[in-house]
Write a structure and sequence with these properties.
elongated, alpha+beta, four-stranded antiparallel β-sheet, ACT domain-containing protein, ACT_dom, ACT-like_dom_sf
Length: about 220
């Protein structure tokens, strides 16, 4: 079984090595490490690890948090290793086929942000309804009747409990949601990550930057 482990750890020499040793002692094989953000003396890392199918994922949490100062933010099943070069590859693909740019973005974003799905939605010209422009294969089929948080002026974590109205299907399985304006405030790319982890400010900044580049390419 392969899992995505998000950890918060002290940003000091030796901590990541100690974490790797602790996980290795429990039979976990680290496939990749991605620094999500860093600052204030700590770092947030995403680790993709292989575990024997006979071991429970709780073992990863126990082993990681046995290392001084390490806290596990989330652990969930994961398919595929992290590959940060895909961001550049996605931009290159959209540049080559700008007429398919929004569809390519919707399909590519889940791989970049280790999420399950993405979709692009926009408010119609008269402002009375919204429509789906593009979506990834795993995106919920439910269409939004209204999205009061559009127009959107910056990348945002969507929190239904905090007043961001979304279809119930979008929040199934404790899905974390983030959105960024795409070219203009009435259009947004929405990303869904079932089971977490929550979207960090650095991830919102990446999503906003990517959306801005794609909007420029596609016009």
């Amino acid at each position: 079984m392969t899992y995505l482990l998000r950890v918060v750890l002290p940003d000091r020499p030796g901590t990541l090595g100690a974490l790797a040793s602790a996980l290795g002692a429990e039979g976990a094989d680290i496939l990749s490490v991605d620094v999500v953000e860093r600052g204030g003396g700590s770092a947030v890392d995403d680790l993709v690890v292989d575990m024997p199918s006979s071991r429970l994922p709780d073992v990863l949490i126990t082993a990681a948090e046995a290392v001084d100062g390490v806290m596990v933010e989330s652990v969930r099943p994961f398919a595929g290793a992290l590959d940060t070069t895909r961001e550049l590859e996605l931009v290159e693909a959209i540049t080559a086929r700008p007429e398919e740019g929004l569809a390519l973005l919707a399909e590519g974003v889940p791989r970049l942000f280790r999420s399950a799905w993405a979709l692009i939605t926009e408010r119609t010209g008269d402002g009375t309804r919204v429509r789906r422009v593009a979506s990834s294969a795993a995106a919920p089929e439910t269409e939004a009747a209204e999205l009061p948080w559009l127009p959107l002026d910056k990348a945002t974590v969507l929190d239904p409990a905090g007043g961001h109205t979304v279809p119930e299907a979008w929040t199934a399985l404790d899905t974390e949601l983030a959105a960024a304006p795409l070219g203009h405030p009435e259009r947004a790319v929405v990303v869904g990550r079932p089971g977490g982890p929550a979207f960090r400010p650095s991830e919102l900044a990446r999503l906003s930057h990517l959306a801005g580049i794609v909007a420029t390419i596609t016009g």
